Amino acid sequence: MPADLDQSLEKARDAKAETLKIFNRLAGSAAVGITRIGDQYGLKVNLAEPLAESVSPPSSVNGVPVCIEVTGQITKRLPAEPS
User: Fold this and answer.
1) What does each of the 83 residues of the chain score in pLDDT, given as a tens digit?
2) Structural domain that includes position 55
3) What is the Cα Rg of the chain in Å?
4) Is there a domain that residue 77 lies in?
5) Is 81 contained in some domain?
6) d(CA 43, CA 49)
7) What span, in angstroms and rounded, lies between the C-alpha atoms of 62 and 18?
């Protein structure tokens, strides 16, 4: 992995917890994952419901780009069982 891509992955990992806190405050229920956005890593926020029209979500957190998708009910994935 190129060094700049590796650095963007580390930044995304570092911003993930803060992003979850922000969107849980804004939406009540959110899930955050790491995804590619353009030529770098960013954060994908899944929401159970659309944000209120009066809410302006951040487009980035700590310099990491954020994309938002309304997916419906948020459920935690169970760890994969060893094969």
Assistant:
1) 667 888 999 999 999 999 999 999 999 889 999 999 999 999 999 999 999 999 999 999 999 999 999 988 777 777 778 87
2) 3-70
3) 14
4) no
5) no
6) 18
7) 9
Look up tokens 């700590």; give the residue: 62
- DSSP labels for 16-82? HHHHHHHHHHHHS-EEEEEEEETTEEEEEEEESSPPPTT----SEETTEEEEEEE-SS--PPPPPPP
Q: Which residue is listed with tokens 């992003």?
A: 19
Would residue 80 count as lying in a domain?
no
Question: Is 79 a member of any domain?
Answer: no
- Record the pTM: 0.82
